[in-house]
Fold these 2 entries.
Entry 1:
Amino acid sequence: MHIAILTFDGFNELDSLIAYGMLSRISLRGDAGWRVSIASPTAQVTSMNGLTIDAHITLKEANQADAVLIGSGMKTREVANDASILSQLQLDPQRQLIAAQCSGTFLLARLGLIGQMPACTDLTSKPWVQAAGVSILNQAFFAKGNLATAGGCMSAQYICAWLIARLKGIDDAREVLHYFAPVGEKEEYVARGLAHLKANLQEQLAPETSGAP
């Protein structure tokens, strides 16, 4: 399985890097076939706070990934108006899981992938995501079919849990949430994360086979 995290100049470190760390937990646990990549339009991108990172793959290569997460950043509207960037993206929810976080929801809309589905985004991005014709929910996470959106930097955990649950199973999603949860709050943290999954995806999740890790 290959997950691509779309990351552009001005990216929000929390969106891209929390997701990268949480999703990479699966390969650290021994799944040699699990791969997580930062996908960018250039070889390097610099975050909103000046952190420069190397891209693993190009945007065109992300089109072949099993799942794609569109991160957010302070230059999202510039990206959305750059035809040379958007033309490289040929994402397909019929064969890919596609998720977006915060202003990434705006790119999802500009790519024509949201349709009439309601979505989540952060409070700063909300007005211009609404202006793109998207109905915004006052909640952290929402998924329907192969599309998911989340709002707020720390909602990355819900996106990651959704992707892992869909690609690996709910037991793996539980383990990852438990591993990253604060000490003393693990049961509450895992329960909240799994509640978001079950509220949206009960019919799509693999059966549970074990208790808490």
Entry 2:
Amino acid sequence: MTIRDMEYIAAIAKEKSMTKAAAQLFVAQPALSQCVRKLEKELDITLFLRTVTGVCPTAEGECFLRFVEKTLAERTNFEKELVDLSQSEGGTVRLGFSGAQAAFVLPHFLTNFRVQHPSIELQLVEASSDTIEKGIEAGEIDVGILHLPIASPRLDYFELSRDRFVIIPRSCGAYEQYIYYKEGEKLPYLNIGFLKNEPLVLTQQGQRSRIACNQIFEKAGILPQVRQEVQHIGTLDALTLVDYASTLLPEKQLTEDIKRRGYFLIDEKYSVSYAFVVCTLKDAYLSKASRQLLDRLHEIQYTF
């Protein structure tokens, strides 16, 4: 059994297809099949079953995959330690983020970090939050910037910045009667009961922003009247500006056009924190370059 064999098995499990795994590894499919047969004979188990949706690991295969994941992770840690021993400065950090983080978080540290650490290469990986979590687990991403909630128990994280959702009603909506103020708060509130019968545009189910909105609705006992679901927060902004529907958006990510239009706070008993967090893999070796990036992110914690 070799490291290459383990890489082949991990790729097959990830892609759920011999053909896709072969393409991803740039090897011929017969080489993968031969690898599986060799390991099954060596271990005296069946690793995969063929189904109508592709290949899936057996119970014994799942057990072997856990061993493979740990072994490949240890090899990655070993390689990072060797790099640190061979060079006092420099290195590479693979930083994962979504589009929202690119627009809001990166400007607060990226330029300064590159000036302070010119020998460190930052490889930027833009992907969905779920993909970033999986990339960190697989050792393909070193540091991720995400929104709560974090799904994987294998990740460590700390808050970088806190945000809250606010309501942006349609200008044609009958929301004036729901406006109220609280002592000590300059911005107006909107009674959340306004949302009960109001057409809404929200991000798609499963996205972190939608999960937070659903938590708000659940707290308020509201079944949202969703007129449209979209993939990106930027699309919510555009549809709100043309009065397509009312929406909820993170306050710190509001555009200047939305701020000029006006928005309303949500009562604290219904509000949900929408924090930016910095994630790494638990118990994984962090390279010097990764630790320097994390130090910089700790320095700017709660400053924006």
